[in-house]
Design a protein that fits this description.
This protein is an alpha/beta fold. 47% of the residues lie in helices and 14% in strands. Strand 4, helix 4 and strand 5 form a beta-alpha-beta unit.
């Protein structure tokens, strides 16, 4: 290992991130009772300009009055972009009035590390000024050509927990030819999003962040959602957005390590402990060589499985 290391900033279960427009409070109750791990209440693109202010009020009220945490929900709010005049009030009003109930702020269209820095500074000032003890983490949406060009530098920003890949805006920003949000264009021989997701995941892991894949627009095709989610999971993403309630269970399933994989990971750790006790660095399991790198991969699986199990137990207790 390098002498420079960035530990995971925070372990949270984030298999599914449900997008809920702040302008539609009728959807809040169902979202809270859903199986989504993380919910982001949206102030940005799902909310029309005339609805921005009432949506902010809806979100503040819902964070304060609804028992999201008792339902095991990690709560995020997607603020408006730094290029809009709504953004500063989103941060000021939501954090001042509901900061104790908020886990994360999702910053859209991040282009440079200073975009994160500005929100970090605002949140720090408001928390101090208002005596808000609750820590609030930051998430950045990488969804512009500028954001992807700077993704390594953005990932190093303080207080960030997650990078999300926003495929819809990314396609628009890059002028990629898409057929469906997050889907594949048959003119391309393979996965046209591979390079972008891959680059974002590497940047995340270098700095201890979670990597989350964004939306898949065709909610009438669970098969294609699952294929997209699996492609992201293989590359190292921890979860994916759900833009429709039907996608929550699919995401939770794809991003939960299967029991056979968890079992094998635990057996790898035991076999290597036994080998170490005999002074050996490598061992064999089921006819395959395993060594310290296998232990690191196995530990990743076990950490995720343990976190999911702990979340399940906490949810069962609350119910
Ligand atoms: C999400 O915001 C996206 O643009 O895909
Ligand atoms: Mg977007």
């Amino acid at each position: 290992m390098s002498f420079t290391q960035f530990k995971p900033v925070k372990t949270r279960v984030q298999r599914s991130t449900l997008a809920v427009p702040g302008s539609n409070p009728a959807m809040f109750e169902k979202a809270m009772k859903s199986d989504a791990d993380v919910i982001f209440l949206d102030l940005e693109d799902a909310v029309a300009p005339n609805d921005k202010v009432p949506a902010r009020e809806n979100i503040i009220k819902a964070l304060n009055e609804m028992p999201w945490r008792e339902h095991g929900k990690t709560m995020s709010v997607r603020i408006n972009g730094l290029d809009t005049h709504w953004m500063y009030r989103d941060v000021v009003d939501v954090v001042e009035q509901a900061g104790e109930k908020l886990d994360l702020i999702l910053i859209p269209k991040v282009g440079v590390p200073a975009d994160v820095y500005m929100v970090e500074a605002m949140v720090a000032q408001i928390r101090e000024g208002k005596g808000i003890a609750n820590p609030i983490g930051l998430e950045a949406l990488i969804e512009t050509a500028l954001g992807m060009a700077n993704v390594e530098a953005i990932a190093a920003a303080r207080n960030l927990e997650t990078l999300h890949f926003g495929v819809a805006d990314f396609a628009a920003s890059r002028r990629s030819r898409t057929v469906v949000i997050g889907g594949l264009n048959p003119d391309y021989p393979g996965d046209q999003w591979h390079a972008a997701i891959d680059r974002m995941v590497t940047s995340c892991r270098a700095y201890g962040l979670r990597a989350v894949d964004g939306p898949f627009g065709d909610f009438s095709s669970p098969e294609d959602f699952v294929k997209a989610a699996k492609r992201a999971a293989v590359l190292g993403c921890e979860g994916k957005w759900a833009i429709h309630p039907s996608q929550i269970a699919l995401a939770n399933d794809v991003f939960s390590p299967p029991p056979a994989e968890v079992d094998r990971a635990r057996r790898i750790l035991v076999a290597l402990e036994e080998a170490a006790a005999q002074g050996k660095g490598a061992a064999s399991l089921d006819g395959r060589m395993i060594d310290a790198a296998s232990a690191r991969m196995a530990q990743n699986v076990v950490t995720v499985a343990d976190a999911i199990e702990a979340k399940g137990k906490a949810g069962a207790k609350a119910a």
